[in-house]
Amino acid sequence: MNSSFFSTVLANYHWQLSLITGLGIIAMVLLGKAIAFAVPTLRTEAKRNSDAYARKMEKPSYAGNQKWNRKWAILFLAIIFGGVLPFCLTAEPQPWWRVARDIVVILMFYDFFYYLTHRFLFHDSALLGGAGPLKWMHAIHHRQHNPCRGDSSYIHPLEVAIGLGLYVASIAVLAALMGQFHVVTVVITWIVFNQINLHNHDLWETDRFPFRYLNYVSVMHHHHHARFTGGNFATITLLYDWMFGTLDHGDGHRGEYTPQMAAEAAAAKAAAKGARSA
After folding, report:
1. Is residue 93 reached through a cis peptide bond, with omega within 30 degrees of 0 on the bond before it?
2. Position 257 pLDDT exceeds 50
């Protein structure tokens, strides 16, 4: 019986495909950076964020947190690419529409559960009668009230594990329900998941076509960071915030807006205006 079980596990353990997925992600990220560097606007915005990140890294506590998370990332990636993804991948040909469908399903499934986690566990929650049980952990990330791209990784390692865990668990659960996902599907979802999270934290100033949407999502996430009582809890898209009434355009969100939040919002806007003027 044990022999049969292990034979089944090994038959479904495709480490080669997991390795190819990892290499594909690295290759696509490098290609994306090369393309972005060739676009003047993207190059300007990247420099704005790299300069801000360099200034923050001069602080020992900030640099220590980033170093801490890089160490933990090695363990998390080993678990993901060595223990989970090998069971979820296939190289069998699939029609383009299935790859496209699977990408959307994975990302929206993940974002739904991230929204719930972020809103009810990481922040104050009327549902749970006060502070979310992991608010103490998420407070580290919210020390950055006007984040730059590098601040996406200024978090507690437990939050890294939760975020990556939700994403990988989404793939594992859906693979069990829908069948194994093509390598291309997982490469694209990983890049989209990662790059959207990075861009949400970007210091972004370009507000013209075709970059207007990039400005919008960055501004919306900065509203979330400006105070610990803001909305905009989803990360891939603001669809769930729209559906559940937590869209925050800088003045709080429906049902949880208080005079204290109004004062915090006014102070945050004044500080942001002063920073732009400086």
Report:
1. no
2. no
